[in-house]
Write a structure and sequence with these properties.
By secondary structure, the chain is an alpha+beta fold. It has 43 helices and 42 strands. Keywords: Nucleus, Transcription, Transcription regulation.
Length: 1400
């Protein structure tokens, strides 16, 4: 039965609707602004209907604002305003920054701190009667208080009026020339009006903007009216109303001399731009009403906001190419194109359709929490894909989805790509949607939803989207938020998908990271007429990355869990007589899968024997290489033509299918699917050796006009890669021949005038010069024919009589020059090529091309050529040539490209440090936000090159500090994209992934001063006890003040007990002397703390004695010479209470060979054991010590404390006896399954009975807690013995738990299936081990038997109160062990058992 749902705004996890603003909720907001363009001022007031919490304090966000007064219900009130930006540029303590790692830590700490501060309300308004000072009222409340119920909120609604003006019009809202516009960045609505600036806090708006009468003010919602001002008739007020609640971020405004262009087919659509762009706007928007109507028809609903407005501004004004608002979108005018431009059409239409789709899913339907952002992003992407499929063709849609899936598979290798998980969404503050990571996440979201559509069908998926929209339009109970859980319910009820499948699907694809990576091989069994297929399934993300998402550790238990994906992949087999699908490849279970696919076609022997009876092959086969006859023979002996895995793209998977060459050729030539053709081209191009059959197949695709034009372009570039001396430059010759057959005059041998009426042919021919420029010879240089051909095209280009522009055509030709690699023979063509480029550059200055495309390509080519020919071309000359294009009067695209080129030259000539300093200079000089972002992205790529390139070029401290100061400046605060990319630069320089995921949210240790590193604040530490000092170990804080130790049994303040782990051990002299002979090199770990700072574990009070884990300690390579030596190799477990008790110490001391093998394992286990000092008086003790048998294998054997070590810690009563056994020492190999227990028993000198533990005792105290010697012996009886507490009780509970677990597993069909697969896997491993063991030598088996014999020798200890030490050592083997690859690695299982005895 379904539970009653809570209100959305209160239930959403991670949504800061009420937590960050003292529980207040804005019900409605009115905004009145007056814009003075002459004085460049914005002033006015806002009125908010606020549901005030009981505390009477309302917290709002405000930045860059001057608050004049605040009134509550018409009466002035007290308010406090704390602008964040005023303290943003204060000097920071960056003295410890000396390398990229420390700089990255400083940037991360600064970035996270700023993001947290921005989530905090900084305008606090007292909505109660000001009986006392506001600061006194705030003492009893914090900004993280809980929210009220909806019933309480309605009882206390106040009207708050805030009179203010905008102090700094540089963030959130901007003045550019005579245009005022907003940028709609995250957390920047507060920069132009006070509000609760949270994406998950929504309210309705009334907006009034007063501007000059000849200007137009465009904003969100419906335009109610426009009226002339009474006070000033030269000004006009525009009044808008938006009844649908939205987040303040989606409130947009553009005011200026805009030209309105209503849509001729739909009066609800309005397009605006500056007057000089009106003709391009008219041509661009001819199609848009079709996309608008298609979305309404697909979703069976009208556009939710009624009117839709689109404004196009110059690129210098916008921060990105598209900016969203409610019923309002702002675009860059570079997307507009006239009727003569071809290349910009597809990109512009897709971007406009995508922005319209996000109005439906993202602005109107909003995510319920940060973990649901992916769903709305994916639904908008899915709707855009439906538009592409409808208006640009199914081939375009499938090709784009295939390329997006390939990009996702390559990038989805870390937890940052997880779509919905608390670490990857809530703690990222919205930064996961910025940059390339955001684009990859968006592609993955759309692909996941398309996978669901494949499972349930297109009609069912469409009904789900219609249901989401219809319930949001319900006037009685509108629900405009959507969660992942609700979408799963829709998929179950409407899509008819089973709940177990949906649970596994969302857990694997949405709540985790990584994509399947399949390696598939096949062979044809002629006798059985089947295809035998072997598949290996892997994951693009590592195990540690997958575990980091769920917060698990990479222990052996998690590593044994096989990672799979729900469902079964289909294999499509194409045969001579037809095609058949085989859904037989499971995506879960065993990683190795062996499949048998039956064939339906049968070979006719006579039919294929006739070619063999013929004579020798004709002369046409003389040039064919030796592979061709083998391929013909394979095709004759097999009915297979080609095979496809996952033909319908039901998985986001990287598939590496290994099939014969002829089958790839058949797939390329005969399969009409664009995805199959693209896969075939990629596979043929990746081959190490290219035969003539590959070149001929690619050429046939290139010349076939019926093939999709993007596939033809891919074939052209693949043919350029196959061109080499081994194939007699056949690929190059075919490319030149094809181009000349389409574009050259056969009579005169020169290019004909351009004719671009055939768009697919235009795109293919445009890519041919670029492909030819990539042809390389044996030494990596371009052939002479390629250089001459490109020079000829540049020289004789003629666009007369062509109705379309050739600007993109020429840009590709110029860019092809930059792709050439000149040698001594072709260097003579460099001068005429540069002369042509200079002529085009000068011509474009006089008559600028569309968006400066030609100038951009010329600058890029000059820079590339100078970098390649640095010995022949002076950098200074090129820089002087490019520098003038950085003038402020140059258009943004050209200015940014010139800066990019100069940054490339600076990096190549002087290194990354100099390039970073130049980048900072350019960013400060760049006035546009978009230009700053583009420069930062380019610098980030340079840093990736510098880090990936193995060189000694390191970033100096001066450059790092300059970037840190830039990172904290107000210039970066104004541009959230620039700030995020700067943070990514620091991460890349430190060798870390460019994302906020995984970045520690606390202060890193590297940034603390040296003194603070020794004794950091807020960390409990145990000072080192001097030799012969008192047994009381005081806990001290960072200032050296002693802290009172909480007595055992008394709850701590935080209801938790801090159990320090001493990082150092001191042993008695006999033990230290013995252990000093077996010290091994210490395995250093970067993650280990300093010895002066012990780790502090917080252990909750459970009411039972905890089970501590046995840990082997590392050894200091250079132990100090002192009275008592350190011995980290021995793990001591000791527990006592406030009375002096007998203590049992269990020591497992590995031998020298063992400690070397377990070096890496001990570094992980160090934090799990509790180790105490041995120079403390504890009274009578009993101790047992055994040596583990010496290992034969040279490899380390991992020992899991959780699975194989059963260990207990408790106070051991006087007189009881305890047995520690090392049991089940097994060498797992074929034919060797044996084990023997090593036991040792130690007795104390007195007798006591075992009793039950007192209920008040919740946890065992560490042995270094001071003991009271005056306690009577009767107090000892209330504590449990080692046997009763830790063995009997724990064992009984464990047995009951195991019984329940076994019963549950017997009833679980999923577990039974996994168990069956596991048995099958073990059976296969056993068969493989038999094959390996058959080649093993007898000497190795004798060594194993000798170790087992030594393991059987155990000395019995004597009774008494003195310390008894029983040692059993295995003699080292006489001969070195064989190589590890000869036999399977032996595995050890160590089990400690305890038994209780009472002496009578």
């Amino acid at each position: 039965m379904a539970k009653a749902k809570k209100p959305k705004n209160e239930e959403a996890p991670g949504a800061k609707t009420t937590s960050e603003n003292t529980g207040a909720k804005v019900l409605h907001q009115k905004l009145f602004l007056s814009i003075d363009f002459k004085k460049r001022q914005i002033y006015g007031h806002t009125e908010l209907e606020v549901s005030v919490p009981d505390i009477g304090i309302v917290g709002l966000h405000a930045e860059n604002l001057g608050i004049e007064s605040v009134l509550v219900d018409g009466e002035p009130t007290v308010f406090e305003y704390y602008p964040h930006h005023q303290n943003s540029e204060t000097e920071s303590n960056w003295n410890s920054v000396s390398d990229p790692a420390s700089a990255a830590d400083a940037a991360a700490m600064e970035y996270v701190g700023v993001l947290k501060r921005e989530d905090t309300a900084n305008l606090l308004i007292n909505c109660c009667k000001p009986s006392k000072d506001l600061s006194e009222q705030l003492d009893n409340v914090t900004l993280e208080n809980g929210s009220q119920s909806s019933g309480e909120a309605k009882q206390n609604v106040k009207l708050i009026r805030i009179n203010y003006w905008v102090e700094k019009i540089e963030s959130g809202i901007h003045f550019d020339e005579n245009i005022v516009h907003t940028d709609n960045q995250m957390r920047r609505a507060r920069c132009w009006f006070p509000c609760i600036d949270d994406e998950y806090h929504r309210c309705s708006f009334d907006l009034e903007f007063t501007v000059p009468h000849n200007f137009v003010a465009v904003s969100v919602g419906k335009l109610l009216y426009q009226v002339m001002c009474k006070e000033d008739t030269s000004r006009k007020t525009y009044v808008y109303e938006l009844a649908i609640p939205i987040a303040p971020r989606w409130v947009s405004l553009v005011a200026g001399p805009l030209e309105l262009l209503p849509d001729q087919n739909n009066f609800l659509i309005s397009n605006l731009c500056l007057p000089y762009d009106i003709s391009r706007l008219r041509n661009t928007m001819e199609f848009f009403h079709e996309a608008y109507s298609y979305y309404e028809d697909y979703l069976s609903a009208n556009f939710p906001f009624g009117f839709y407005k689109q404004v196009f501004l110059p690129p210098e004004m916008v921060v990105s190419s598209s900016t969203l608002g409610a019923s309002f979108s702002i675009f860059s005018s570079h997307m507009l194109y006239d009727e003569r431009v071809i290349d910009q059409t597809i990109d512009t239409r897709i971007k406009l359709a995508s922005a319209l789709a996000k109005q439906w899913f993202g602005v109107y339907i909003t995510p319920e929490s940060p973990n649901d952002d992916w769903l709305l992003d994916g639904l908008a992407g899915f709707l855009t894909d439906m538009f592409i499929k409808q208006f640009l063709g199914n081939n375009e849609a499938r090709y784009r989805r295939y390329k997006a899936n390939c990009a996702v598979c390559k990038a989805d290798d870390s937890g940052a790509m997880c779509l919905s998980a608390s670490p990857s969404c809530k703690d990222l503050f919205g930064t996961h949607s910025i940059g390339m990571h955001g684009k990859i996440r968006s592609w993955k979201s759309g692909a996941v939803l398309q996978m669901l559509e494949k499972q349930m069908g297109s009609d069912s998926f469409r009904k789900i989207l219609q249901k989401i929209i219809s319930r949001a339009k319900d006037p009685s109970n509108p629900i405009r938020s959507l969660s992942t859980k609700e979408f799963r319910q829709f998929a179950n009820k409407i899509g008819n998908l089973e709940r177990p499948f949906l649970k596994e699907f969302f857990q694997r694809w949405v709540a985790s990271c990584g994509c399947p990576m399949l390696r598939i091989g096949l062979s044809y069994n002629k006798r059985k007429n089947i295809v035998e297929m072997a598949a290996l399934r892997e994951c693009t993300a590592s195990l540690d990355a997958r575990l980091s998402v769920i917060g698990a550790t990479s222990d052996s238990e998690n590593r044994d869990v096989d990672v799979g994906w729900p469902g079964i992949m289909s294999i499509r087999v194409y045969e001579i007589d037809g095609m058949s699908d085989h859904p037989k490849l499971p995506m879960a279970g065993d990683r190795w899968q062996l499949l048998e696919l039956p064939c339906h076609s049968k070979l006719a022997a006579k039919r294929y024997q006739k070619p063999k009876k013929g004579g020798k092959p004709d002369g046409a086969e003389d040039n064919a290489d030796a592979i061709v006859p083998l391929e013909n023979k394979a095709s004759i002996e097999s009915p297979l033509t080609w095979i496809k895995a996952d033909p319908e793209m039901e998985y986001i998977a990287e598939i590496q299918l290994h099939q014969p060459l002829q089958m790839w050729v058949n797939q390329l030539e005969k399969d009409g699917d664009v995805v199959a053709q693209a896969q075939a081209i990629a596979s043929l191009e990746a081959l190490k050796q290219h035969s003539f059959s590959i070149v001929n197949a690619l050429n046939s695709i290139l010349t076939d006009s019926k093939v999709f034009w993007r596939i033809r372009i891919g074939a052209a570039f693949a043919m350029a890669k196959t061109a080499s001396e081994e194939t007699d430059w056949a690929g190059l010759q075919h490319l030149i021949k094809f181009y000349k057959s389409r574009r050259f005059d056969a009579e005169i041998g020169l290019p004909k005038p351009n004719d671009f009426r055939d768009f697919p042919e235009y795109f293919v021919l445009e890519a041919i010069p670029h492909a030819i420029a990539r042809v390389r010879g044996a030494e990596g240089k371009s052939p002479r024919e390629a250089v001459e051909f490109i020079l000829q095209l540049l020289k004789y280009n003629d666009n007369s009589g062509n109705p379309y522009s050739d600007v993109f055509w020429l840009a590709v030709l110029v860019q092809s020059v930059g792709d050439l690699e000149f040698c001594q023979q072709t260097l003579t063509f460099l001068a005429p090529l540069l002369k042509r480029i200079d002529r085009l550059l000068q011509f474009d200055r006089l008559m600028p091309s569309y968006n400066g495309i030609l100038t951009i390509s010329c600058i890029r080519t000059l820079a590339q050529t100078a970098l390649k020919l640095s010995d022949s071309i002076s950098f200074e000359h090129i820089c002087k040539l490019i520098e003038p294009f950085r003038n402020s009067d140059t258009i943004l695209q050209v200015r940014v490209e010139a800066s990019r080129a100069l940054l490339d030259i600076e990096y190549q000539s002087k290194g990354i440090s100099s390039a970073l300093l130049l980048f900072k200079k350019y960013v400060v000089e760049e006035s546009s936000l978009r230009g700053q972002v583009k420069l930062c992205v380019h610098t980030m790529r340079l840093c990736q090159i510098a880090v990936g390139y193995d060189s000694d070029d390191c970033v100096d401290t001066v450059s790092l500090l300059d970037l840190l100061h830039l990172f904290k400046s107000h210039v970066v605060f104004n541009n959230e994209f620039l700030r995020h990319y700067l943070f990514c630069i620091f991460q890349i320089l430190a060798g870390r992934p460019p994302t906020l995921f995984g970045v520690p949210k606390e202060k890193p240790l590297q940034l603390v001063d040296v003194e603070a590193c020794i004794e950091p604040k807020n960390v409990f530490s145990v000072p080192e006890a001097e030799a012969g000092g008192p047994s009381l170990l005081a806990l001290g804080d960072a200032k050296g003040k002693s802290l009172d130790v909480v007595p055992f049994g008394v709850p701590a303040r935080s209801q938790e007990m801090f159990m320090p782990i001493v990082s150092e051990l001191r042993f008695p002299e006999p033990v230290a002397a013995y252990e000093a002979q077996h010290l091994e090199p210490h395995m250093e770990s970067q993650n280990q703390p300093l010895l002066e700072n012990p780790i502090v574990n917080e252990i909750p009070l459970d009411g039972e004695a905890p089970r501590e884990e046995l840990a082997n300690r590392d050894v200091n390579p250079n132990p100090p010479i002192m009275e008592r030596q350190k011995e980290p190799d021995v793990a001591s477990v000791s527990v006592s209470h406030e009375v002096k008790k007998s203590v049992i110490r269990i020591k497992v001391r590995p031998s020298g060979a063992t400690s070397r093998a377990e070096g890496s394992a001990r570094s992980i286990e160090r934090s799990q054991g509790i180790v105490v000092r041995h120079d403390i008086d504890r009274g009578q003790t009993s101790s047992a010590s055994v040596d583990a048998p010496q290992r034969i294998s040279t490899d380390a054997v991992s020992i899991s404390n959780q699975n194989h070590v059963e260990e207990v810690n408790s106070c051991h009563d006087v007189g009881s006896r305890m047995t520690a056994s090392i049991g089940s020492v097994k060498f797992v190999s074929e034919g060797d399954t044996f084990g023997k227990e090593l036991q040792c028993t130690a007795e104390s000198g007195k007798t006591s009975a075992s009793q039950k533990a007192d209920n008040n005792i919740q946890i065992a105290a560490p042995s270094f807690i001071p003991v009271d010697h005056s306690m009577e012996n009767e107090a000892q009886q209330k504590y449990a013995s080692l046997q009763t507490l830790s063995v009997s009780k724990e064992r009984d509970k464990k047995k009951d738990k195991e019984k329940k677990e076994k019963k549950r597993k017997r009833e679980d069909p999923v577990y039974q299936e996994k168990k069956r697969l596991k048995k099958e896997k073990k059976r296969k491993e056993k068969e493989m081990a038999k094959l390996v063991s058959s080649t093993s030598d007898p000497a190795r088996e004798k060594q194993i038997e000798s170790v087992v014999a030594e393991a059987k020798k155990v000395e019995e200890p004597s009774n008494g109160a003195e310390l008894v030490k029983v040692e059993t050592e295995a003699e080292p083997s006489a001969e070195p062990s064989a190589e590890p690859s000869d036999r399977p690695i032996p595995k050890f299982r160590i089990k400690l058992k305890s038994k209780a005895f009472n002496n009578s």
